[in-house]
């Protein structure tokens, strides 16, 4: 299986002739840059941690946060402003008890808030681990935006068993529907008795069958959603997403984890004679996310990590986005698969999985299924039953023994929409934003990883809507300490992303259009659905602005069609640099997009033909430009750096190289005894410089090599000793008249400060 995937990832065609998604993001932004220039805001509370629960409240403009011993209310506009806090520790007795039971007093015997829901117009409902003593309480938040009330009502604190986990390491999945809480959680101290549980509200609590591995087998709950099935609320269903040890896997193959989707009816009240206060409508199916291998065996991503329900106009048919990783310790990979409600419902209407006895295989159940078909809700829509208590015994018995469906739910398009393998990270969370662009709607995926980064991905149709292309737009380091992202929320209204980790909460705008560049072509090539060229700059695309001014083409990203007004070669920045004959010269040119390919052309004189720069052992391509070793007189001329991306080539930089001879620098030293035109003392500098070339200071060359050959581009700010960076961002200090010539010692080639300070002899330019 592993070999199959490796083969697959190395072969040029994945699946149906699809190229593997590019591993390189178009842009990579580090924490300091995001913080200094792109509105990244961070919130941390002293003596707390583990910001695992984020609850977005658009109406109140608040972000409610559940953490260790604390609840926070932050401003959605700026999480670093006007925070309100509630201190909610576990009582000392519970902490001592917890400690006696062998748990760590500081990392486990605390109150870790795990559940936070909006309860009614004035209150939230919150649950925490309470030092292995789960507890829930109401939190008063006021009715209006201006209300500054944020108060925990501990007089009405309740037992949190079956709602919050005991162990802070465990996750709980829950959803509040009406006044009832549906949760998937371990209900005991040892974390062995897992259940899908309904509590709160006025109806009796109800749960899954206990100690039956066919129902649940060491599950890890991931998420829960409430989805209406028709206009009739009696058909409403609750869907649970989890992963568990697969019962249907043949014994002897070891434990295998499968991703699952489980369903129950909202109006399930249990059976009358059997399955009393147990679900009678519980069914589960395998959720498949896999890629075909070359040898016919599929590679499965079975470790379900997170699910995001993208609401569409039709409330009954949201899109289910799920992220998975592989369970193999050898092979590291993560994937995103999308499921439709139609496919999910089809699996629950398909054959049941059946096992005749301990020594039998799981097969598709072919005999008669009792009526009403297990899994159907008692309602007027599909039958005549008004309560699950009225279901015939035969139905209840069948349901009890057949919770598993035979057919799995396959992803839309039969394959992942985004896949990364052999990357140093695993996906942990996902949030999706549906964005209106000039040529349609796009779902932009924000994927959190276990190293504190967020990937921004958009899926666009290639030729048709069945053949999609994934664009990895950005890789953003939002947590300085690379801690795993444990929660992710989007505010479409405010165009902000919120993320939680063990160490902090972060807030970042969903887009940074200006960063793509100052030309229409750059904006267009980015293919970011949030961004369009407005005639002057790359800015947020607004669907209601006049068509005449905006340029956007997410689907094709073709600047030839859109950017006719772009400046041509005349306005491409031109720089001059000097190379000393026999030494090396570095022509630096780094495109903004990490996905662009750089192309160099060379022209000896303006009248000479342009030709591509030929690479050999003397002319070497590096990550950041080309290195000319042992510069010769014939190397002088104009070097033009182009970026090629998505079939479009644009000039980035013109570098005019002048070569200075070693014997004598005819162009440098003016004839006669007249005052030199260049900086005074230039001759002295030049002599010093040559010495330096002969005896470079210890370590200087190492640094150059490090910079030239390092696979990861170092930040432009860290300036190496040699050679000077030539990009506009990291320009060496300009020389002024009378400046200490010594300053230039460590430079082998350098930019001319200004044209008139260059050598005096006529250049062909
Ligand atoms: C957010 O609030 C902090 C603290 O008041 C302030 O320093 C920062 O400038 C604010 N940022 C924005 C973008 O408003
Ligand atoms: C919301 O629920 C709380 C807790 O049950 C209750 O005290 C409060 O009155 C309710 N508020 C409204 C507006 O119903």
UniProtKB/TrEMBL annotation:
Residue ranges under compositional bias (Basic and acidic residues)? 737-759
Provide the protein's localization. Answer: Membrane
Q: What keywords tag this UniProt record?
A: Disulfide bond, Glycoprotein, Membrane, Signal
Domain named Ig-like: which ranges?
567-644
Any transmembrane segments, and where? none
The answer to whether the entry has keyword Disulfide bond is yes
| Domain Sema, chain residue ranges per copy | 26-510
Pfam families given for it?
Answer: PSI, Sema
Task: State the signal peptide span.
Answer: 1-16
Disordered, as annotated region: 714-765
Q: To which protein family does this belong?
A: Belongs to the semaphorin family.
Q: What is this protein called?
A: Semaphorin-3B isoform X1
Origin organism is: Apteryx mantelli (North Island brown kiwi)
**Gene of this entry:** SEMA3B
